[in-house]
Design brief:
The chain is built from 15 helices and 11 strands. It is α+β, with helices and mostly antiparallel strands and 382 residues long. The radius of gyration is 23 Å and the shape is globular. The strands form 3 sheets. Strands 1, 5, 6, 7, 8, 9 and 10 form a 7-stranded mixed beta sheet that branches. Strands 2-11 form a two-stranded antiparallel sheet. It has helices spanning 8-16, 18-31, 48-67, 91-103, 107-113, 116-130, 134-137, 198-203, 206-218, 258-269, 277-287, 304-324, 339-342, 346-353, 359-365, and strands at 4-5, 40-43, 73-77, 84-88, 138-140, 150-157, 166-178, 184-192, 222-231, 295-301, 366-369.
Length: 382
């Protein structure tokens, strides 16, 4: 019997919409075009948030290796068969490699994506400035095999729960030892359009499931989750005014931060920027602390009772998936107002519901790949 990996993304998709789940996992088995077995049907072209989120995550991965002094290392960026491999020593090497790939895109594609190289670099520099004490607070943990706990797979068999041929499997960004709170903490980076309210991180089943799997597989003293949120929308670059000529805008509603504004001020005025500081001082004072609108980190301790509830709910869903797989003749769908913006299979869903042939859409817009462990990206928030 083939082992099926029920990762958190897979379970979450099934809970959200059975039709979306079917498009991703069932169609790969029935519609793959090259004749070889595949696991997932995914869009050929991802939307902008995923490009930016992937870029930012790659920069963080390189930074984590710098922390662990595990450089140089071979970084795999993107998804196979389109992934690239780069020898990396610093996050700047990663940024240069991704910029080079970006420049290979057609002009129309680059225009649609915007100035990603500049935006991502500005975002990451702001991130580094905001969390400049990280290396004094955290240390990258080491796995039992001696490897740094960066981008590693964790898994737990489900046979003991009566689920044959299934296991929990997931990918963890980083495991750190926390000098301030003690113990080990799972470090999860999420780049989103807007930082969500606290309820989302406390109600997410991801934290207790990952802690459970790490304890089960390695027996580690894992205390909880550290959510690291960053906004994918970069701080706005202030525009240069015609009146007063050559001065930067000090508009109150400008969605920017202190670092971006100050950097732009020095670019515009050069070595004479101090001459104009009295003009900009009120604006600079206003922007103090606004970096918190872009970056947020919250530790979520995971107690045993929360782990028990999350595992029970997870196992219930896995059993529902296995039961549904025995009766695939009809798959129900959940349609909401935001499906058009949040589901990559929306057009297929609408066409199929109207009784249209969807195979041309599948051929033009999707590809079939092996099992993927990718970051959970919600396009509504990404």
């Amino acid at each position: 019997m083939a082992i099926v990996n029920y990762n958190q993304s897979r379970v979450k998709m099934f809970r959200r919409c059975h039709k979306q789940y079917s498009f991703r996992y069932d169609y790969a088995q029935h519609y793959h075009m090259d004749g070889s077995p595949k696991d997932e049907m995914v869009p050929t072209i991802h939307k902008l948030p995923l490009y930016r989120g992937t870029w930012m995550h790659a920069l963080q991965e390189a930074l984590h290796h710098q922390w662990a002094e595990a450089v140089p290392f071979t970084q795999v960026i993107g998804e196979r068969p389109y992934a690239i491999e780069v020898e990396v020593e610093t996050w700047r090497d990663t940024h240069e490699a991704m910029t080079a790939e970006f420049e290979k895109l057609f002009l129309e594609e680059r225009e649609e994506l915007g100035d990603l190289p500049d935006e991502c670099e500005r975002l990451f520099k702001s991130y580094l400035k905001f969390w400049d004490k990280d290396q004094d607070t955290y240390e990258v943990a080491t796995l039992p095999n001696g490897e740094p706990a960066i981008e590693f797979i964790v898994q737990a068999p489900l046979n003991q729960f009566g689920i044959q041929g299934g296991r929990f499997k997931g990918k963890i960004d980083l495991l750190v030892e926390d000098y301030e709170y003690g113990g080990l903490w799972i470090w999860d980076a999420k780049w989103v359009k807007r930082i969500p309210p606290p309820d989302e991180r406390y109600m997410s089943p991801q934290a207790p499931l990952y802690v459970w799997a790490l304890r089960k597989q390695y027996g580690l003293d894992v205390r909880g989750f550290a959510y690291n949120y960053g906004r994918t929308k970069p701080p706005a670059i202030p525009r240069v005014l015609q009146r007063p000529a050559g001065m930067l805008s000090v508009a109150h509603k400008m969605d920017t931060d202190l670092n971006t504004y100050f950097t732009r001020m020095k670019e515009v005025h050069g070595n004479k920027w101090r001459k104009y500081i009295h003009y900009y001082l009120p604006k600079l004072q206003e922007l103090k602390g606004r970096e918190a609108l872009w970056f947020d980190r919250q530790r979520v301790p995971v107690e045993d009772d929360r782990i028990l509830r999350a595992v029970r709910e997870y196992l219930t869903t896995v059993k529902d998936i296995q039961e549904r797989e025995t009766r695939r003749d009809y798959v129900d769908r959940s349609y909401f107002y935001n499906c058009k913006f949040g589901c990559e299979y929306h057009d297929l869903c609408v066409a199929e519901f109207q009784g249209l042939e969807i195979e041309p859409l599948v051929r033009d817009g999707f590809r079939f790949v092996g099992e993927r462990y990718v970051r959970e990206v919600d396009l509504l928030d990404g």
